[in-house]
Every structure is written in structure tokens, then in C-alpha cells.
Protein 1
Amino acid sequence: MENNYQEAVKCVLISEEDIRKAVKNAGNQLSQEYAGKPVLLVSILKGAFIFLGDLCRCMDIPCRLDFMETKSYFGGTESTGTVEIIKDLNHDISKYHVIIVEDIIDTGRTLSEVIKIMKKRNPLSLKIITLLDKPARRIVKLDADISLFTIPDHFVVGYGLDYNGYYRNLPYIAEFKE
Ligand code: IMP
Ligand code: MG
């Protein structure tokens, strides 16, 4: 993998500049929408950590951050639930307007399970913002409230998204060639 590291990511799909502009717009929009409200930005680790970091710095209202990490068992033999919480939130979300910050919605299965878990905890409100949306592969009907980029059915890496744990540190979104 290290030998082909650069070759695998030659095709830039979304540039650093385009990401920066879109994230700034989204931050402005959220700042207006949530002004005066207790806001909790929740990121699903690990893919969304860079998006969250940049998004929260484009918001000029008070907000708190929290993280959840999950493990999925879709198509597995587990009979109890399809998503296991590896790391749970530290906040009582019933006191907050929660914004889930996601890297990409692909099949929609992970996020729809996370939403079920969150709704049981009665947040003041719940919205979803995703950096990328890949609607062609959707299995569960699920739409983000805010989606920054809709992309075709390609596997992408960079800006937090990984292939086998690598490429998260690329500053742009690239199409990945295996
Ligand atoms: P799904 O919507 O449940 O299918 O899963 C979404 C998760 O799969 C995302 O949060 C990513 O972590 C991962 N994922 C889906 N598509 C891609 C991709 O193109 N590149 C990198 N990770 C992806
Ligand atoms: Mg993810």
C-alpha cells in the first residue's frame, strides 16, 4: 500500500478551496439557525473529525462538542442490534439542540441506527449535517438536513475519510483507485 500511496489518490474530486467555501457557508447557516439555543455538535468517529473541526470554527455562536464511536454488524450474525456503541457521548442530550456531523451518508444504515439511539434520549431537536452524500447506494431512506456535496458512486478518501485507516490527512476529497 505504501508503494502506491500517491498513485491511488491522483484524481481530486473536491478541492480544498471548494471544501473551505462550503464549510464556511454551512457554519454561517448554522450560526443563524441556532443563535440563542444550547447547541451540541456530535461527530461520529472517526471519519467526521476534520469536518467537525473546521465546521465548528466557522460558527460564531456558543456550542459544545461531543463524540460517539460505533461498530456496525450489518449482514453479520448478531441478533442484538446492528450498531454497537464503542464510545458513548458525555452529555445529557435532553438539554441540547443536537446536530449530528457526518462525513458521508452511503447506505444510510449506520446513521439511521444512531438516530434511533439519539431520539430515545429526547434531544430538544435533532438535525443532520453531512459533508458528502452518495445517494446512489442508499438502502435506508434517510436524508440529511444539510448536505455539502452530492457525489457519484465512487469510493473517496481524504478530509477525514479513510481507506484501511489511511488517507484521512489529505486536505481534499479524492477518488480512490484500488
Ligand atoms: P453507511 O451510510 O452506513 O453505509 O456508512 C457510512 C460510513 O461508511 C461512513 O461514515 C464512512 O465511514 C464509510 N464510508 C462510506 N462510503 C465511504 C467512502 O466512499 N469512503 C470512505 N468511507 C466511506
Ligand atoms: Mg463515519
Note: Helices lie at 16-33, 49-57, 109-119.
Protein 2
Amino acid sequence: MMEEKLKILYLEDNPDDAELVERMLRKENGKLELHRVDSREEFIAAIRSTAFDVILSDHSLPQFNSNEALRLCNLAHLKVPFILVTGTVSEEFAVKCLKQGADDYVLKSNLTRLPTAIANALRQRKLASDRLHAEVALRHQNEELSKINQELDSLVYSVSHNLRAPLSSVLGLLNLANLEEHPRHPEFDAYLKMIEKSVLKLDDTLKEILDYSRNARLEIARDCINLKELCDDCMEKLAFLEGNKEIEIRSSFSGMEIPLYSDAYRLSMILTNMLSNAIKYRDKSKEQQYIHINAKITSCSLTIDFEDNGIGIQPALTGKIFNMFFRGTELSEGAGLGLYIVKQTVDKLNGRILVSSNPGKGTTFTVHLPNNQSGR
Ligand code: ADP
């Protein structure tokens, strides 16, 4: 492969110095094209007309100097290495030039260093430009990814949302079929019951997916909350959940006089999931089945314990119950999404959720959330 010629622009008014520099460079690198200028006008014309690989500049010319030249290069956004080739300079002056964007400086008394200085400056510029390209590519990739993420999220949301309408008409039709009084095969009713159960399960999963999606999309709200009323609302929503009548739900609240600020929608999602799990995973062999809700409000936090005496969770599984699609027991009829969504929601609210469980004895979930009184 033929090596390309190195195109050098050289600002120098002294022909003898210029010749010396050219000789030195040709000795080290024969393939170069050196274009010498010695005035401001020539310098501007050169950088406008030609793409140089390197610019060399003497410091001071009769009506022009290297600072000016560097400033013009910066104004033109030239990404070309700029090296001062000059007589004696003070350390202060050298630092000033480097600060202004010069890549290096070489003393005329030490010209043997010039080829290495050029090679180093070219390498550094190449590294910087590669890094810049990589950063731009990464930024584009990130923008692309977050766009895809948003699109995926709205697809999940609208699909789940749209699927719920036909499901509720199936439920309506099932109700009508149940009202039919014509004599029918004894198994027919059992089939209808099974269809209804499956449709309700599917609807629950869609509701969970919608909750997930809402938590991911919606800004955090700051509502003034009456915790007791919110708990009552959640219990009411669960009134028709199987087993709800068998379990005693007891609640105690402290610090109710302290204003509580949080996201009502998200908090109610957490409460509903905690309560419905305690009902679903109650221990039917126990005579007294209960869930105790213990809530404590302070000016900076809300802590709620959900203590049940249900079937409990095996110690080996407690680390996994917040994973997506994880179901820890064959009794589960859900999609394994509830606690995953609860954890995502608690995280979004800058809170924490802990669990301790004893198989056969019961489970306690503790949710800590900030009380956002200050609005931050
Ligand atoms: P799902 O209820 O759909 O299985 P969840 O994410 O709500 O999914 O719960 C994950 C698993 O955690 C459940 O399958 C169950 O094994 C366990 N679990 C959750 N809550 C309780 C609880 N209160 N008591 C016992 N086990 C529980």
C-alpha cells in the first residue's frame, strides 16, 4: 500500500529556518508536502483551501503571530495538530500556548525532536477523534434504545388495554349463559365455571401488566393521603377475591395526625398486592387465618408491616420472590408478576421492601417509603 504524503502547513518568515525544518523532516519522512506561508492572509487562504495534516508555526512574525494563527484555527474548528516551532520560549509562554490548544512546542535549537512531536500529536488527535466518534455513536445508540423502549412500553400498554374490552364482553356473555334456564347437560355449568375462571385469570394478568406499564411511564405524584381510607378502598377492591371472607384483616395506624404525602395510585397498588397475596397464600388448615397491617407515619417516612399466618415461603425462595415471573408455590394461579411490580414501584418511590418468612407459620413484608412532605 502506498503511504500518503503528509501535508504540512508551515508559518515561518525566515527562509533559512524553513529550509532547516524541511531538511530535518525529509530526513525522517521523505513523503511530505510542505507549504510555507509568512503572512496572515496567506495563512487564512491556505487553511481555507487545503486540508493539512499538521500545522507548524513560528511564534512571532512581523504582522502576525502563533496565538493569532491558533485562534483562527480554533474559529475554523480545525482538528489539525498545531505545533509551535520557535526560538527560546519561557515556560509560562509554552504553558499558555498549550492551554490555547497548541499540541506541542519544539525549540529551533532542538529540531531533532520535531518528527516525534508531529507523530505524537497526530496519534493524540486520532485517539481524540476516535473517542469522539465512539461517544457520538454511543449517544445515538442510547437514544435509539430509549425510543425502542418507549415504543415497546406503549405497545404493551395498548395491547393489554385493548385486550381487556373483549374479555369483559366474554364475562358478560358468561353471565347471560348462566341465566339461561333451559335444561342442559350437567357438565355444562362446570365448563362455564372453568371458562370464567380462566378469563378472570387472564384479566388479572392484563391488569398487572397495565400496572407495570403505568409505574414505568407515569411521573411520581405527590398526593396528601389518608392511609386508613386508602387501605379500606383496597380491601373493598378485594371483596370478591376467593378466601377474602375466611381471613381476618386487622389494621392499626400510628401517626395518623401527621400529614402523609406519597403517590396514592402507586401506594394503593402496593397495598392491594400485599393484601391479595396474604389472602391467596393463606393457610387453609388454620382455624384462624389473619393478616395484620401495622402502619406508622412519621414526618419523614411511612412504614407498613403486612404480617400474615399463611403458608409461608421456603428460605431458599425468599431471594427470588421479587423476580419477574417467579412463582414460589403450586398454589399460585398468577403470572408471578405481583411482587415484581411491587418492588419496581417501591424502588421508583425511593423506598425499600423487606420480607421475613417461616414456612408453615407465616410471612411479614415490611414496606418503607419516604413521606414526601417537603415535595422533593
Ligand atoms: P403470583 O402470586 O402471581 O405467584 P407474586 O409475584 O405476587 O406472584 O408472588 C411470587 C411468589 O411469592 C408467589 O408465587 C408465592 O410463592 C410467594 N408469596 C408472595 N406473597 C406471599 C405470602 N403472603 N405468603 C406466602 N407466599 C407468598
Note: The longest helix spans residues 114-179.
